[in-house]
# Entry
Amino acid sequence: MSDLGTCEKCAGQFRYQIIHNGFSDTAYAYCDRCGCTAIISGWSPRPADAPFKVHQSISADVEPFLKPCSCGGHFRAGAAPRCPECNSALSADAATSYIEANAPGTAKGWRWQRDWVGVYCIVVDGRRMDDPWRPELLPSDG
# Structure
């Protein structure tokens, strides 16, 4: 299920989905060029040396283990999701208005985390890549 968000820079509208990485045992990162969201499962095979932790954004020391985004950008610890219309980085603070307006839990006291590093991440317009580990670094089957 997706909801409707609005870019604070160009007023363009887009569909989005919020993911709770604690419930799904995942971590995430955003592409520094297009804002695509990488969702990384804690249950999938990964490079043995990757200092990987679930339930949050990746740390910078995980970046070298990830393959580039399909746009040619890179999944970075400090990157943000981007507007599909103007490609501006979306503000987690400004996103509070539409995220809380669309979230059923808001009426019961739930509040948006107001950052792109906590337990929640956002997928904009379905732009998502799952488990983008560099294949040459994955364990072989034997």
The chain has a mean pLDDT of 96. The first strand starts at residue 3 and ends at 6.
